[in-house]
Write a structure and sequence with these properties.
The chain is mainly alpha-helical and 501 residues long. The chain has one domain: Sodium/glucose cotransporter, CATH 1.20.1730. The chain is 80% helix and 0% strand. The chain has 22 helices and no strands. Helix 7 runs antiparallel to helix 16 and helix 11 crosses helix 16. The N and C termini lie far apart (55 Å). Catalyzes the sodium-dependent uptake of extracellular L-proline.
Amino acid sequence: MNIYEVIAIGLYMVLMVLIGIYSYKKSTGNSDDFLIGGRKMGAAVTALSAGAADMSGWLLMGLPGAMYLSGLSSAWIAIGLTAGAFLNYVLVAPRLRIYTEVARNAITLPVFFENRFHDRTQLLKLVSSILILVFFTLYTSAGMVSGGRLFESAFGMDYYTGLFSTTFVVVLYTFLGGFLAVSLTDFVQGTIMVVALIVVPAVVVFQMGGVEATFDIIEAKNSNYLDLLQGTTLVSVVSLLAWGLGYFGQPHILVRFMAIEHISDIPKARRIGIGWMIFTVGGAMLVGLFGIAYLRTFDVDTMNRFDASKEAAETIFIYLSRVLFHPFIGGILMSAILAAVMSTISSQLLVTSSSMTEDIYKTFFNKKATPRNMLLMSRLSVLIVAVVAFCLSLNPQDSILNLVGNAWAGFGAAFGPLVILSLLWKRTTAWGALSGMLVGGTIVLLWVYVPHGYKAVYEIIPGFGLGFLTIIIVSLCTRPVSPEICREFDRVQEIRNAGSR
């Protein structure tokens, strides 16, 4: 690792810690400030924070690598994710922001479910919080592993050094500043990511003599690289597009909508967020695609190595950052990968700790906890979750990583239909909500782990579909909701309609 790269990465990490210190001074009032920023997030911070929390290292390594090896046919997942993110802003964001405040100021998704349905059994909160606690602890662990592997493969450092460095910085700024620190660091990280993914493909095109010349070289290597349908089937295309369904059920993304200051800011946040996503996802695809032309022209030996290995191909962004720029600039660009990893870890870490604090500790252990006690418990929860995730990361097991690989589908199927119907359908009942959540999550696990002949179908499709139907059927078969719940639902619609005028 070049000394200039070390300096650039070091400066990036120092900046993250400084943001944590700044946020600490702004977030010491109570757990509401710590866990949801007091609902004072602006449109730009909300948009970039949601985007950065969503996109992990997959954006700068997995997607460019897939584009390098397969060409445009790898773009379907990006199309599905962008469409899902847009619909999430349109259908969920404004309603969730209003409803979580109307429903007795719910600051976590499990509390919202309980308050929305007036669930006195507390089963909705308990089941949803357990799902979040278990899956996000594993998810956080996988993010830490990604950080360690990044330092190991990209920078030539020891895995454990990279793991500790990544974990220490993320935990420090999350522990100090809570949601505000996570959101502000996400904003900075999102900015670094979009700049890097615009600059790198632009410089490649300049080196190649223009867009037309670049595409001519790509087509000369393999004309199928520019065919959107090459090697695909209807099932594979639908399965890749279905990734977009996962957005409706991701707690670490939904909490950003709950924290925005004004409902009138949501359209602006949507424009910024979707614009950011188009540039970053599009840039990541172009890095992989244009990398084909660059290697074919200037470095055939590396091209042969990348062609033979998926793991090598996923480092195409790192390779281009190093060969096209001064090492210091390249280090700044490569910090975009670390930014993608860290932003996801911190968001998942905070959501998991909020579930421990608001949904479990306050509900079952200390119902009369003071604001100071809740704030202290929030910070302790961050440390507890981080320690468990770190221990799992020391010796990562395939079973854990495989489970985390399906967490997107699990959350999407368990929470997605419930979030949509709870916001759009007044007739949804508590028993329908609980049944749908359990069915959606269970179907995903069965689809993944029980042998069958339909593995080509992405598990979120049956999980989301059956969860959605279960909520409707059980709700229609159970007692209608109370007049009070109907009035709250109508109140949310009135506020939304007034805010959209």
